[in-house]
Known about the structure:
The chain is mainly beta. The protein contains two helices and 14 strands, in the order αββββββββββββββα.
Amino acid sequence: MNVDHTRSKTLGWLGALAAASLLASGQAHAGAYGLAVNELSNFRITTSAGALSLAGANRNASDSAFFQGGVAVNPRAVNTGPAANADVPQVCSGSGCTGLPQNHYAPTTALEFARGDAHAFGNMLNGTGSTVLAVSEAQRNTVGAASATAGDTLTGSVNLTLSSAGFITFSFMGRRDLRTSVTAMGDKSNVSIMDIFNISCNSASPVGCLSHANADGVIFQFAPDGDANNGSDINGNHGAGSLDPFSLNMTAGTNDPSTGRAFTNGLAQFSLTSNFALAAGSYTLNFSKSTRTDIVVIDPVIVVVPAPATLLLLGTGLAALAFTRRRQPK
């Protein structure tokens, strides 16, 4: 029997086994997560003189969720009329939806899902004000390409009447919670929030209203951007009397596992006062609020992440190959 040939063949198989083990030692587990929470409480509108009244209020809410490979959920909307609250059922798609509570505005522990939820309630003219909340959240933890999207919007318009000329103030407690993360390079997670409030002229507004307005008829606007010296008022900066601690109009995202994004803030006071007195009469108050989450998971790639045992096997294989080469006949 040719002992050298048998030994060479055996050691050659050891080298091949080591190489195969190294290649199979690690496969990326793709996944992505996104959360956008947008909460306002004690939202109030006040005036420096006289009284304010509201009429003809409409609040419209819609939620949506899309989960690739899951049950599609179409957006739902409701026009709540002058007095009712705006609260449509949470929508959720994916295998992790069971048991998720309605009107839950915090991260969940579910996997493989997309959900959207929003509602508004309360009176913005009384001492406790109104509350407006919105959340969109999605997660994929899967092998293979996949995507999920969640979103919601709350919009409204109210006829606002001033009994006498006065400055208008918007004030509320606001918080945000934006989180994005991925587990493999190339996966994507993007989230966004938006809050815009304004007062505009209407057909019953006092003469001269449009002289203060922009091209859209807006005379006063608050879109918190985190700049304490600029309340995003179309009529100029408010260096004093404005509170704008962080942005409630922003987008965050990542496609790199090493650069997850998180912007998490507790409730803080926001306020802005118009820099001119509005004449007595009728105006339109408008608000728009939204959250959105978009995640995309790509096909995972094979990566080399050798464990210590694999490295030992590889070393054995390389040594075997080297020994075999030395034993070859001249």
